[in-house]
Amino acid sequence: PPIQKMVEYANLARKSLRTNTTTHIAVYDERVYTQLIRAGKIEQSMKNAMAQHEFKAFIQPKYNLETGQIVGAEALVRWIREDGSMIYPDDFIPIFEKNGFIVELDFFILGEVCRMIQRRLQGKRHCVPISINQSRVLLQEKDYVKRVADILKKYDTPPRYIELELTERIFRDDLTDLAKMMGELRNLGIRWSIDDFGTGYSNYGYMRDKIFDIVKVDRSFITDIDKQRNNYLMVSFIIKMAHEMGLHVCIEGVETKEELACVRELGADYIQGYYYGKPVCVADFEEQHLKKLILG
Ligand code: C2E
Ligand code: CA
Ligand code: CA
User: Fold this and answer.
1) Whose CA, among 4, 165, 207, 270, lies 20 to 30 Å from 279?
2) Selection from 108, 163, 113, 164 nearest residue 136 by Cα
3) Regions of the chain short of the pLDDT cut 70
4) Cβ 196 under 6 angstroms from ligand 1
5) Which ligand minimizes its atom distance to the CA of 216?
6) Residues with beta carbon < 5 A to ion ligand 3?
């Protein structure tokens, strides 16, 4: 190809590198190209998608092992396009974290969750605490704490119904400012979870500092836990450590009854996984999971 094109390709390959990567070499191939085209399309349509209400909060239940009761849920974003096709968060969250749109999206999902809680409580119906994923980018917003508090106020949502999830990976960075912000929201009654626990390679200073309430053990430890002795031992160790420190443990990604049996043996507090229910739209979540709560 002519020089001009080669420079363009090299540039595309360069842009395909994630900002947080440790690699300094990028190679151009067809895949880089298609990925960049995809990312470009997503960026072009994201604002319009927000205006057209194409982003939806899907909800996945968390159950208590002992009682078999629903005890909470997690909101997971879905992008449902005009033609009804669905895009999963792994395909757009990384892009939105790069271009900053994640801030708007995460506040929107928090608002949607609060709106649902408000509607239920005003209708004198039960609800459970719902957790919302918070991106690292979001926490760098100057008025983050105030904006969260304002959204709860706007929808009359008691803070005990809100739980915020932070992936363990963000605790590689300096904790001072983060811990302060988390403390402010915690004082209001909001709870914090460490997501993807076991995958962050962090220093565990933040465990000692007691800024969390719940540990969510990463799904990779649960897959085949009934067959993988080392996974079993790891989860056993994590649960013991968390309980000793007064934290609750949520096990993610339980799919089979064999996995469930192992997790029960280990004494986890909550279970979230396909075994109890996949993420579904708000209406289905209320119908399939919250209805039982009223009867039970
Ligand atoms: P996550 O926070 O670790 O969420 C759990 C993921 O595991 C979800 O994928 C969920 O659908 C999936 N999952 C739950 N139970 C099972 C199971 O039994 N088996 C299997 N195979 N998978 C299960 P999802 O919805 O595709 O979300 C992927 C990731 O995208 C999330 O991982 C989270 O990091 C991010 N994400 C999702 N929604 C939001 C959001 O609103 N804001 C931000 N910042 N990130 C979000
Ligand atoms: Ca999560
Ligand atoms: Ca997780």
Assistant:
1) 207
2) 164
3) 18-21, 201-203, 294-296
4) yes
5) 3
6) 195-196
